[in-house]
Amino acid sequence: MGAPGRAVELAMSDSEFRMLAELFKSHCGLHFGQESRFLLERRIARRCADLGLRSFNAYHYVLRNDISGEGELAWAIDNLTTNETYFLREKAQLMALIEEIIPSLQARGGGAGAAPVSIWSAGCSSGEEPYSIVLLAQEAGLEPGRDLRVYASDISRQMLHKARRGIYREASFRQTDPFLREKYFSEKDGLFRISDEIKKHVSFAHLNLLDEARSALLGSLDVVLCRNVIIYFDVETKRRVVRTFHQKLKPGGFLLLGHSESLINLSTDFELKHLRHDMVYRKPAENDPWHETAERTLAQLDRRRGA
């Protein structure tokens, strides 16, 4: 065991960088290019110091022998990924989901009494995205549980723990109207706890997007949101994850990516739809007059709000 602090001075060799980068890519798709080398070196060097390890090779050995992925691999993923998110992020897209996509899917499914629209927030981080969906749905007059069901997953157990607690700081509300925070959160000592009425409608699960077997447990879905996640993958892994989303979605289902992401050079299996609020991707369905259905259901929603 080395003296505490010595490992911080370690220099990562080219071979050590390649080994570690390949391990993270194969395990969860995280891509570390040369531009990320310094970050990887700095954070793992500190971890080596904490563990008393003398080399990056030794740390690679520890990771490689974490068969369950519940120990050091989990720590590394939590500390090497960025979990920047907040409530109502890219709100126009969320409004397209609530006001256009969900009503049209309900109409296609048979209208009143149809099965709830199933929504997967893939890479949900600390929970702001799935909670935003439920919050906006209630504001629009939809009934979570009856009209929609929200599933949320992340590879980081630390982030999932925060999501399940549902307690947030001021930074999570940078795009949130004050009246919504007052309505759906209780404040104490500068922390804001989301109401149980919202929390109970999100089901969280630990899931690696490269684990197709576990993804299958979600069943077929109507909507997948994977926003600002695949930017951390290389092209090969992006294509693999997008194929999984295509398999999971029902015909006519929707894929919502972040505004900085697109399917260009990744997939031709989706069509780009220009909605009233935003642009989204859609898995084509045969004999499906989308525009006619959308206009009809939007009119129904407007009447429902006026009732």
CATH superfamily name of the largest domain?
A: Vaccinia Virus protein VP39
β-strand percent reads 15-25%
What is the CATH class designation of the largest domain? Alpha Beta
Beginning-to-end CA distance, first to last residue: 71 Å
Please compute the radius of gyration using only Cα atoms.
Answer: 21 Å
What percent of residues adopt helix (DSSP H or I)? Answer: 40-55%
Number of helices: 12
Largest sheet: 7 strands, mixed
What structural class should be given to the helix and strand makeup?
A: alpha/beta
CATH topology of the largest domain: Rossmann fold
Number of strands: 10
Identify the CATH architecture of the largest domain: 3-Layer(aba) Sandwich
Spatially, the strands of the biggest sheet line up as 6-2-1-7-8-10-9
- Morphology: globular
Walk me through what this model shows.
The strands form two sheets. Strands 6-2-1-7-8-10-9 form a seven-stranded mixed beta sheet. The protein has helices spanning 14-28, 37-51, 56-64, 72-80, 91-108, 128-139, 157-165, 178-184, 196-199, 212-215, 235-248, 290-306, and strands at residues 117-122, 148-154, 167-168, 185-188, 191-194, 202-206, 221-226, 249-257, 271-274, 279-282. 37% of the residues are buried. With 307 residues, the chain is of the alpha/beta class.
Structural key phrases:
alpha/beta; 2 domains; Chemotaxis Receptor Methyltransferase Cher, domain 1; seven-stranded mixed beta sheet; 307 residues; 12 helices; Rossmann fold
Brief synopsis:
The chain is α/β, with parallel strands linked by helices and 307 residues long.
